[in-house]
Amino acid sequence: MQKLFYTPQLRIIAVSSAALLFLAACDTTPSATAEPTYALSAPTLEASPVFFPLAPTSDASEFHVAGQNDPTAAAAVSGGELPPLPVGTTVLGDPRQQVIITAGDGAQLNASLYLPLSGEPAHPVLLLAESTDDWGSFPLQLLDEGLAVLSLDLRPNAPLGDVLAAFNALPSMSVIDVSSIGMVGAGAGAELALAACGIDIPCGALALISPQTASEQGIFAYNPRPLFMAAASDDATSTAAINTLRAVARGTIELPVVAGSGGGAPLIAADTSLANRLAGWLRATLIN
To answer: Domains of the chain: which residue ranges?
Structure first.
């Protein structure tokens, strides 16, 4: 028998041929899979010939929650005071805007804001009484003098924090110049006004109308800034309080004589001469 001898060249050829036969036996081409096609179909709608925009029928104020969806309030820094939040719509030609001030304990305090139409920064006067209506037209009189007015309706047994909240709400308005403010307290508001001006509030003028108590400590803290005090001649309690405060006051004092009876903010509303004198004094003290 004749023996076969494999040379290296023949061995390479044999291995290559075997590999080709193996690959030829394997069909590696994937079979085509049918892919679904989609055709969009829908009823054709004819374009409307006329566009009828519908205005909202609901009152936006129904969905306004003070301090929650007000952009300025939402942007307040942590621990900052909320600005006065407008309530309702101002009547055309009426400079009075009803606002709400949030007190430190979360209570909603009613107030009225009067801003000069000039748009120029104005010194504010903070009025403290049971109701803005008790002042009559006095806020408008101050407005005519070039002063801004924030009249706070005091709640029963109002704490000093309510007055501080009202003052701290003022710097948020660009038309208010809080470098010096006027404070007018009537009745129970007189005690609060004196206490507030005796701390860090920059009161340049303080008026006490029919004060019921005499806080000498409050006057010591307020001295020597200008002071205005008035009471009806028949009001023995307020007259006694004014005399006590007068004895320890060290600044200039304005003491008009008011004949008759009455007291508090209604005394200003009923006495034109007294209202004129107080308005002129506030203007001269804060602006001139």
So the answer is: 96-286
